[in-house]
Amino acid sequence: KAKELGKRNYVVFNIEMKKAVMEKAEIQNNLRKAIEFNEFVLHYQPQVEPHTGRVLGLEALIRWEKDNKLVPPNKFIGIAEETGLIVPIGDWVITTACAFLKKLHDLGYQELTMSVNISALQLQEDQFVDKVLKVLRDNNLDSGKLELEITETVLIEFLDAKISHVLDSLIENNIKISLDDFGLGYSSLNYIKQLPISTLKVDKSFIDDIQSAPESKNITGLIVTMAHQLGLKVVAEGVEKPEQREYLIKYDCDAIQGYLASKPLPEEEIIKVLNKNLL
Ligand code: C2E
Ligand code: MG
Ligand code: MG
Ligand code: MG
Question: Keywords, A to Z (predicted)?
């Protein structure tokens, strides 16, 4: 009986595996076509000043327009990374986000910054820095207005001499580096201190804790305080509740990003909220 069961489990496992592999291959094929047929769009989420709600900058977040539906990045970025397709996709993101930033600067929002998410594979590319500089030049943008977001886990996992060199040349060119999802990677602030980053993005899980667990309130506050001591700016991710905002104002957090201020919005809609106070 056990043997029979085992056998059956094996079969189920096999079918599941096969399904997963086929799904992956299909997504991979579709991603190739998506690049060719321009099926990606960027939505932009405001990063706002906590006490005023004034928009300081935007984060570009990719979506895939597939069969009239918007596919979220978590459904395809992983596969794009595994297959190397993240490189052309990432190039498109940087180019598109910078062109939009240029448009916003021309509309009079000259202080606005743009944050773009970057995968490890992009940083490992020889031409990466040159590509970014060219896009900035083509759009006549001040490089200080572009911020590249790299997740803490990626940076810890992939940081080697080459990536370290890439980060240094980005900094030399005044491009900002932001450490995304901070707090998930268990790296110490002592380690962070040695990286050439200018901004720390505190992960949503810490922001969620502000409400639920009173004692871990202090963790977010401590992170903000210590980051400031290291000369870093702090952005709080996933702020949804007014109480979280109050807490972050108390600790002098530099910017908040989350549904409380705004969801990520397409170009036309983001333009309408830029001169508003979102909080
Ligand atoms: P991320 O960079 O940490 O972006 C923040 C994510 O949190 C976004 O999800 C955003 O929509 C979501 N978010 C913002 N505020 C709130 C809130 O108040 N509540 C909740 N529940 N969620 C909130 P999204 O757009 O689905 O992106 C997910 C992840 O996909 C991003 O996390 C980033 O790691 C990755 N990603 C997005 N665009 C790109 C891209 O162009 N290139 C690369 N390599 N990765 C990207
Ligand atoms: Mg990000
Ligand atoms: Mg994040
Ligand atoms: Mg994230």
Answer: Coiled coil, Membrane, Transmembrane, Transmembrane helix
